[in-house]
Specification:
With 281 residues, the chain is of the alpha+beta class. It contains seven helices and nine strands. Strands 1, 2, 3 and 4 form a four-stranded mixed sheet that branches. A three-stranded antiparallel sheet has the order 7-8-9, with no helix packed on it. A two-stranded antiparallel ribbon has the order 5-6.
Amino acid sequence: MTLSPARAGAPSTVALVRGFNDLGVALLRRAPAGANCLLSPFSIASVLSALCAGAGGVTRDELSRLIGAPDDAGALSSAIKALLQRVRSRTFEQASFDARAGRFTTVERDAFVLHTANALFVQSAFPVLKSYHETLHSDFDADTMALDFADAALAAARINDWVATNTNGKIKDLLQPETLSPLTRIVVANAVYFFAEWASQFSPERTGPAPFHLLPGGERSTVDVPMMRKTLHLQHYADRETGLAAVRIPYHALGMMVEQRVGDGDELASFLSRDLDGHRG
C-alpha cells in the first residue's frame, strides 16, 4: 500500500506501512515460480499487529520484526489506529445541474467503500484479559469471541458467519469444520470489503472478448475473457533490467497498482516506498 507524502502521517505510521509492504514482498518471494498470487499485506499485517499487542517476550519481538512494528506498545497502537483511520470509507460531493430547477445541486456519494475487520476467536476455556480486549476494540478495530472448538461444526459456522458479514456476503464457507479440532486454541481472522468507481470510467461498449494468457504447462495457452479497454495517461513504472512493470489505475480518492512482474522483490519494495519518501512513482 502507498500513502501520499502530504497525508502520510507520523513517522511511526510511515514505518509501519513500510513494514507491511516488506512483509508482502517477502511473502511474494515465497510464491511458486510462475504462479499467480494475490495477497493483501495490509490484511495480514494488521491482524498480526493485533496479536503483537497482546504478546510478550520472544513472541512479541518476533512479531514486531515481522511486521516492522515500533518497540513501544503504545506507539504501535497509535500507528495502527491512525492507519486504520486513513483507509476508512470516504464520501465526496458531486455537483450536477438540475434543468427543471435551473440551478446546480450537490449530492453526497461514496468515494469508495473500504471495510476492514479483525477478530480473534478464542477457546472459551481461555478468557481474554479485559485490558487486551479493550485495546483491540479501540485501536485495532478488532473483536474477541469465545468459541468451543470441540464443536467444530458450530465453531466453523460462527467464524464463517463473521466473515460473510464483514465481506458483504462475498466470501462464504471460508473455514471447513475439519480444519478445527479440540486442540485448537485460537483462530485469527481478517476480512476486507472494497468497492469503488474508477476515476475514469470504462465504457461497457468497449468491453469485449480478448485472449488472457494462462500459465505455461496447461492444455491451453490462452482463454478468451471479457476485457475492458480505454486509452488514458497513467502513472507507470518499468525497469528493463529486472522486467518489473507496474501501473497505477486511479479510483476516486485512491488507486490500484497492478504489477506485471515481481522479479526478486527488491524493485517492488523500492517502488512501494517512493510515496512514503515523498516521491511519486
